Amino acid sequence: MKTIKDSVHDHIQVDGVARDLLDAPELQRLRSISQLGTVSLVYPSANHTRFEHSLGVYHLACEALEHLAVEGQRAERVRAAAILHDVGHGPFSHNLESLTYRRTGRYHDDVHGLLANGAVGDVLRDHDLEPDRVADLVAGEGRFGQLVSGELDVDRMDYLVRDAHHTGVPYGTIDHGRLVRELTFVDGELVLDEGNVQTAESLLVARALMNPTVYSHGVARISKAMLRRAGERLLNAPAADVDAEVLQRMDDHDLIAALRSCEATAEFSRRLDQRDLFKRAVWAEIDDVPGGIIEADHGTIREFEREIADRASADPARVILDVPSRPSMAESTTRVMVTGDVRRLGQQSPLVGALRAAQYSQWRLGVYSPPALRDRVGRAAVDVLGLDIDGALVSEVRDGPDTTLDQFVDR
């Protein structure tokens, strides 16, 4: 057994298959992948990694298994899946996942190939665990896959608390101890036991507050969009000799070095290194965006960018259109026991409707460019995208999340 001091859970005891997996290169690589990607450009202390998060998920999985009285090989499979659940992440965590998915067809939780080979595969087989069955749990399949990836998974319980701790933002603080203790299975579904509607609501509220404050903070969105653009240019640069498969297996340091050394990405790299970021030229609410733009595919988005750049007489590389997907709230499907019945939180809690409305009010389409181009790019974007924005474009607006009315073109 190995005992590790953790900033969130204090002492974590690692034993069995997880102890033998600790030193596998695939897991150690996570020490060099930031948990929150470019969010550290907003919150300087947000430098925690996927490795420590994986230890936290393992720790909570162990507590859940003990509470649920799950033992033997079944428990070992879940413990292995918990500590390995993030080995499929590329550099800067989720920041480049949409880019690599378009070229490989794999998200970070598709780890069947990774777990079957190398040191991880050897360790799993040494413990009589089938890599494919562990990979299925990572993907959230089966009864116990819900513990690793689902509405009540221990992954979410750890990252909310850990991200709040390292950013200094208090909104992600949840009672993960109670959440784990109240887990139970009903007809194969993982639910919270009687008397825990408020417990489920706390998870929902924490995620709803952390999203605009941390995960979708305006500066984090701009830097993430710039990193995605740089990653795409790297993949398209013949001299770089980097494909999506190689990019997925890089860590943060590998990617930074590749971006710095490639002529096509050197300017983006310099801007990210020096925090010389693009600024918002447009920041539009969901009701002001014509139908079809939100659902537009990547190729269509790039066409819009080129048209905006052409109308603004700007280099297309200096215009980024950032269109988030429609707001969703997975936590609202959390199942809770109420007077003997299993109900979804969205059916039981009046908070769900209010938080869903808040999500829609916080949604923004962004167009980003260097500061010197913002006026031209902003006006061109409004015309090209057909944004329903009343009034003149303004020259000075607040940058905070409560900006209203003429905030859409931001200088």
* Number of beta strands: 9
Helical proportion?
Answer: 40-55%
Number of domains: 2
From N to C, what is the helix and strand string? Answer: EEHHHHHHHHHHHEEHHHHHEHEEEHHEH
Secondary-structure arrangement, i.e. CATH architecture of the largest domain: Orthogonal Bundle
Using the coordinates above, name the CATH class of the largest domain.
Mainly Alpha
The main β sheet shows up as: 3 strands, antiparallel
**What's the number of helices?**
20
Mean pLDDT, nearest integer?
92
Structural account:
The protein contains 20 helices and nine strands. The chain is globular. It has helices at 16-21, 25-28, 50-67, 72-84, 97-104, 112-116, 118-126, 131-138, 145-148, 154-167, 176-181, 197-215, 218-236, 244-249, 252-261, 266-274, 298-311, 345-348, 351-362, 374-385, and strands at residues 2-6, 10-14, 183-186, 189-192, 279-285, 320-322, 335-338, 341-344, 364-369. The chain has two domains: 2-215 and 336-344, Hypothetical protein af1432, CATH 1.10.3210.10; 278-326 and 363-411. The strands form four sheets. Strands 5-9-6 form a three-stranded antiparallel sheet, with helices on both faces. Strands 1-2 form a two-stranded antiparallel ribbon. Strands 3-4 form a two-stranded antiparallel sheet. The termini are far apart. The longest helix is centred in the middle third of the chain and has 19 residues, at 197-215. With 411 residues, the protein is mainly alpha-helical. Helix 4 (72-84) crosses helix 8 (131-138) and helix 12 runs parallel beside helix 19. A hairpin with a 3-residue loop joins strand 1 and strand 2 (10-14). The model is unreliable at 391-411 (pLDDT under 50). 49% of the residues lie in helices and 10% in strands.
